[in-house]
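Long-time lurker, first post. I've been practising inverse folding by hand and with some scripts of my own, and I keep getting stuck on stretches where the structure tokens seem ambiguous. Below is the full token string for one chain I'm working on. Before anyone asks, I'm not after the true native sequence, just a reasonable design that respects the backbone. If someone could post their per-position residues I'd love to compare against what I wrote down in my notebook.
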């Protein structure tokens, strides 16, 4: 690598790397680095470029800025999740969901409570085995329609965020058992529907979705004091 001093991107995923080449230290112009390592300790050798790299895939910038122990702990969690299907990334100061999470397609439980995550990207649909998605105490303002493609989803918990509207596609989650949306700014579904529980929420969202298809909206006997703003 020592001759490629002008390199700005280096993509080495899906390779069983056991060490990093010494020439990597000379790539001062690199801005995107994607690697997948099997000896976790070599990640600490990336420190010399961590302050410069804008898009370091593993680990994300908010992790690398907290020191070696935090970096190693994070990587261990990612690797363990491949076997257990359970990934917990609570209280790490994450501003977004790390892209490597979406590569863990065997995940059944993803918990990221008390971070600064402002968005769940469409790539969430790649976690087709996900049963529990828990992202309480973040800064979410909306949820993607792609959540409706998670056929195995049983629990969605997004309490204590800034969400105003739930996506209509949630009614397509055939196995959903619990939707927790307390401490948000929800307008759709309205509080009266939320108070009745998950089944009522799903039915309400289905009613709105079917209205878009059949051009007919039936809101009888829903106990609504105000006409829904979303309509």
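-- Answer (accepted) --
I ran through it position by position. Result:
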């Amino acid at each position: 690598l020592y001759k490629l001093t002008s390199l700005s991107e280096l993509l080495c995923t899906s390779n069983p790397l056991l060490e990093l080449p010494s020439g990597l230290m000379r790539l001062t112009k690199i801005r995107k680095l994607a690697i997948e390592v099997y000896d976790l300790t070599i990640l600490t050798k990336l420190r010399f470029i961590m302050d410069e790299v804008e898009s370091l895939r593993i680990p994300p910038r908010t992790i690398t800025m907290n020191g070696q122990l935090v970096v190693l702990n994070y990587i261990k969690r990612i690797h363990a999740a491949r076997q257990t299907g359970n990934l917990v990334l609570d209280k790490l100061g994450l501003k977004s969901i790390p892209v490597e999470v979406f590569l863990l397609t065997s995940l059944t439980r993803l918990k990221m409570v008390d971070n600064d995550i402002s968005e769940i990207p469409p790539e969430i649909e790649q976690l087709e085995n996900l049963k529990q998605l828990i992202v309480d105490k973040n800064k979410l303002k909306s949820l993607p329609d792609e959540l409706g493609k998670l056929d195995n989803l049983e629990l969605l918990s997004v309490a204590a965020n800034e969400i105003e509207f739930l996506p209509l596609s949630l009614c397509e989650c055939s196995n959903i058992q619990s939707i927790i949306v307390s401490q948000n700014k929800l307008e759709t579904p309205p509080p009266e529907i939320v108070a009745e529980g998950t089944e009522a929420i799903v039915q309400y969202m289905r009613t709105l979705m079917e209205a878009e298809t059949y051009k007919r909206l039936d809101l009888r006997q829903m106990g609504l004091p105000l006409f829904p703003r979303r309509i």
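A couple of notes from the structure itself: The longest strand covers residues 9-17. Helices lie at 47-50, 61-64, 68-84, 191-194, 198-214. Happy to go over any region you disagree with.
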